[in-house]
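Quarterly update from the structural biology core.
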Amino acid sequence: MTLTAVLDTLATDPHAPVDLARVGLLLARDAYHTLNPRAYLRRVDRLADHLRPRLLGSLAARTAALTAFLFEECGFAGNTANYYDPRNSYLNKVLDRQVGLPITLSILAAAVGTRAGLN
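Predicted structure, tokenized:
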């Protein structure tokens, strides 16, 4: 699916389900023309596979497991040293570098959590 197709779908139905990770990676193609979204989506899937068995208990417990996994165990973090680095905005670079803007890290957390069964 192309970015145009996703945007057309959302223009027709703002409540249509979309894969945030896919949209983020399609947006990143503006800056990284040779980007292969499938390779990065597999990485998001693998993160979700590792998280899934840890999602136990209440919503608060499952959310805590997600954040502990991504931000403590995997080491994802906000880029406090160079907040305005453009790479912080691109999901592919956040996955590569493990640093990014809060909104990009939130997209990653939502994508991993959703794939792992945290809705």
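The mean pLDDT is 96.
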